[in-house]
Design goal:
This protein is mainly α. It contains 44 helices and 7 strands. A 5-stranded parallel beta sheet has the order 2-3-4-1-5, sandwiched between helices. Strands 6-7 form a two-stranded antiparallel sheet.
Length: 843
């Protein structure tokens, strides 16, 4: 067996050295096995090689030692390493008095700058006097002298105060963690073939979460057994970590391990002992493979330590685990993390816990994180006995509705049919008011299930309104009636020559839905009509109606219930503006959509806005403006919560991005997938698919196939006079349209598309040749003030906005102008706009 090879982490070493030389003090904190000593030694070596400074290294010895001993020992070793001032500093002794400190500082100032002093294993320092001295030394900020501490635990120093004064930089375990690329290289160096390394590396990296010691153990296990995931060796390492804590600490760790993340308040609820928060902070400072997200103030275990603790918990008899799961569920519920709350409630296991589990679906709008665990949630729900489901029929129907809205697969019909049969058989055991309500809620769910069959939907919703005589509890949970799509027509229009008829049905159904949902979806019927006019190129009628919708959505007590309608209407207006040459208004509309959902917890609303942004920027030819996850086609990956009904729309945007990148072969593949990517027949999916495939074929196969595919799109769109969705492809299809026009003279539909396509192409061309084309009025206003020499605080005060908002707007404006600095932005803005009043685009 060959020797192990160690991966040279030159980039990490360079980053660490740069960080050390930029601050008076650099602190590196990570648990054992993160390669702190290796990194410290590599920094010393690199500093010597690169002439970035003279570096000295000292490792704190084990055992309790007072500051005087450490001082004598440290400067003795530094003298051996060639530090000129070390003998004099050693003779002075540990500086307890201010006069001694000043003498030490003078000697350190006399060193040839830059000088780096690295102290390793600092967690072994137990004398507070050493911490106090290093605090004072850092505050002195001696030019050219830099100190770095490598420790398993957070030093008991005034780090927060020093950070505020920009004297210290703090790096934690993430800084030292292996990347996936490094993992792959490490495995390759140790004999795993190029063909196998990428997949094995991904598994190992996810399992180890970048922990070098665990990765080494994984490799060791692979060498002996051919299996990458180590078991016994990892458990041995965890046992060593775990055994270092006292009984109270161990119990706290075991109890907290049932949660994926937790706050100090959660910890106190789980372990109702007053000392719990302090004990948790102490554990964090010991770096018990425990990280803290300072933005959310939530703690999280390293995944391997968490799994180890959970295994240990199963064998502990003195902890009441069902009660623990119940409390954890309450903590998750308070944070509205329903997927995790769902799991905890199921594990608690009593009938009342399972009934409460169904309450999650009935009394809370389920969060989108449930979408990522739907198979698990489905299995948990199906394990609930029917005796419990019959005790809470509305809760079970709410689960069925949530399952339908979120996952919409073939099992939904089966679930609803079985529920209706069971509830009918058990009707005699229910109070009469509940019998009627259950029947009404079943009809409401049936109506939701038939969302793109408008006639069936109307029948079910009409019956639901009759039976319920008021709002439906289940429909009231569904504030996202558009399934998170900014374009209703894309997911509801099924076949050619039924667009107008479908809109008429939609207007009836959405009014009924407005009643059933307790106010959600107001004016959605008008938004559907506006989309119809927009697609036909009837811009004046569409704009008038869309403006009316937005005025209605911005007033009244149910304003928050109309967010979805407002987003849909704003997207339609942005498309209208982009097609009309009003680029700045289109950009402002997107910005308004973004601000409208700021602070929201609804991932689906965020995705809805990013879908709108991706679509509009694609039409305008602005590849960089398309959100990265759409640009790369990552439509099924967290954190995005796209409903299946929206997959086709998201893939269309991905196709538009590929078109801008001229990735023709991949575009052809994606275009073919679009019609099959939604769970129902979809006219617009077929139209976009045919156009994108036509553009790809033009570059791959030639004219004949491209024309055939474009004819398919024209045939699909002609019965309903749809022109905008085709014309938005502008410069990509104009040559093909001209060829078809020669062969099919007198085709009015084709001529209308060509006319609008020419217009949109000209607009897109102007925008791409002039980077200021998409500057918003607010961005122009800020740039004008920058050009006048105003500072950010002054601008913020003048405009009545925060300093952070100013920075955010200017950052976007700089990107659009293609500049990186304030002076360059002012010069560029003055060149383009003079005094800032000229407009590039004229309606």
């Amino acid at each position: 067996m060959s020797e192990y090879h160690f991966l040279p982490r030159r980039e990490l070493t360079e980053k660490a050295l740069k960080s050390i030389t930029e601050y008076s003090l650099a602190v590196f904190i990570a648990p054992m096995g993160y390669g702190k000593t290796t990194l410290a030694e590599a920094v010393v070596e690199l500093a010597g090689e690169s002439s970035l400074g003279k570096a000295y290294y000292y490792s704190v010895p084990e055992g309790p030692h007072d500051a005087k001993f450490l001082w004598h020992d440290m400067f003795g070793q530094l003298e051996a390493q060639g530090m000129d001032a070390a003998p004099a500093i050693r003779r002075l002794g540990f500086p307890e008095a201010a006069s001694q400190r000043l003498q030490v500082f003078e000697l350190l100032r006399g060193l040839t700058p830059p000088t780096l002093l690295i102290i390793d294993d600092y967690q072994q320092v137990t004398d507070p006097a050493m911490n106090v001295f290093l605090d004072v030394l850092t505050l002195a900020a001696i030019p050219g002298f830099h100190l770095a501490l490598f420790s398993r635990t957070r030093p008991d120093m005034r780090l927060d105060e020093l950070q505020i004064k920009m004297l210290v930089v703090l790096h934690e375990q993430d800084f030292l963690a292996f990347s996936e690329g490094e993992t792959q290289e490490y495995l390759r160096l140790n004999g795993i073939s190029e063909a196998v390394a990428p997949k094995v590396a991904k598994d190992a990296w996810q399992f180890c979460e970048g922990w070098p010691a665990a990765l080494w153990l994984c490799l060791q296990n692979w060498r002996s057994s051919g299996v990458i995931l180590a078991t016994d060796s990892i458990d041995s390492l965890m046992c060593k970590v775990f055994s270092g804590y006292d009984k109270e600490e161990q119990d706290l760790l075991l109890c907290l391990s049932v949660m994926e993340s937790f706050s100090e308040q959660d910890a106190l609820k789980i372990r109702a002992v007053p000392q719990t928060p302090a004990r948790l902070r102490a554990l964090r400072e010991k770096n018990t493979l425990l990280s803290l997200n300072r933005k959310t103030n939530l703690f999280k275990f390293h995944s391997m330590f968490k799994e180890f603790l959970r295994k240990e918990l199963t064998g502990v008899a003195h902890i009441d685990k069902p009660a623990l799961y119940r409390i954890a569920g309450e903590c998750y519920l308070k944070r509205m993390e329903l997927a995790h709350a769902f799991r905890m409630c199921a594990r608690a296991g009593r009938d009342e816990d399972l009934i409460r589990l169904l309450d999650f679906f009935l009394f809370y709008e389920h969060d989108e994180s449930c979408a990522y665990f739907y198979e698990e949630i489905f299995a948990i729900a199906m394990a609930i006995p029917w005796r419990v489901r019959l005790q809470h029929p509305l809760g079970w129907l709410a689960f069925v509705a949530a399952y339908m809205a979120t996952w919409s697969d073939s099992r939904t019909d089966m679930l609803l049919e079985e529920a209706e049969e069971r509830f009918a058989l058990a009707a005699d055991t229910m109070p009469k008011y509940l019998q009627k309500r259950v029947r009404g809620e079943c009809e409401a769910v049936r109506g939701m299930l038939a969302f793109n069959d408008m006639e069936k939907m109307f029948q079910h919703y009409t019956e639901a309104v009759r039976l319920l005589n008021g709002p439906s509890q289940i429909c009231c949970l569904d504030s996202l009636w558009s399934f998170g799509s900014p374009n209703m027509s894309f997911i509801t229009v099924r076949k050619p020559d039924e667009f107008d008829q479908l809109i008429a049905h939609a207007e009836q159904n959405l009014r009924l839905y407005h009643t059933l949902s307790g106010g959600y979806g107001k004016s959605a019927d008008k938004a559907a009509r506006a989309e119809y006019w927009l697609e036909r190129g009837e811009f004046t009628s569409a704009e008038t109606l869309l403006s009316e919708i937005l005025r209605g959505c911005s007033v009244g007590r149910n304003k928050e219930k109309n967010i979805t309608t407002s987003l849909v209407a704003r997207f339609s207006l942005a498309r209208l503006y982009a097609a009309s040459g009003r680029q700045e208004e289109a950009a402002l509309m997107l910005e308004t959509m973004r601000s409208q959902i700021s602070g929201t917890d609804a991932i689906m609303h965020v995705d809805c806005v990013e879908l709108a942004e991706g679509y509009i920027h694609a039409v305008c030819g602005n590849l960089k403006g398309i959100p990265q996850w759409l640009r790369e086609g990552r439509v099924l990956e967290p954190p995005h919560a796209l409903q299946p009904q929206v997959f086709g729309f998201s893939l269309t945007i991905y196709g538009k991005a590929l078109m801008l990148q001229e990735e023709w072969h991949l575009l052809a593949h994606v275009a073919e997938k679009i019609p099959d990517s939604t769970p129902q027949e979809c006219l617009f999916a077929r139209i976009h698919s045919a156009i994108l495939h036509s553009v790809a074929a033009w570059h791959i196969s030639g004219q004949d196939k491209a024309l055939s595919l474009l004819r398919e799109a024209l045939d699909l769109s002609r019965p309903d006079c749809i022109i905008l969705s085709l014309a938005e492809y502008g410069r990509y299809i104009l040559p093909l349209l001209r060829l078809l026009k020669r062969k099919e003279s007198g085709n009015e539909h084709l001529e209308e598309i060509e006319t609008l396509a020419k217009r949109i192409t000209a607009i897109s061309s102007m925008a791409s040749n002039n980077k200021n084309g998409l500057l918003t009025p607010r961005e122009k206003e800020l740039l004008r003030l920058v050009a006048q020499g105003k500072s950010n605080p002054v601008i913020a005060k003048n405009l009545g906005i925060s300093n952070d908002t100013v920075k955010e707007h200017l950052s976007r404006a700089y990107a659009k102008l293609g500049v990186t600095g304030r002076m360059e932005a002012a010069r560029r803005f003055t060149e383009l706009f003079g005094n800032g009043t000229s407009e590039f685009f004229q309606s």
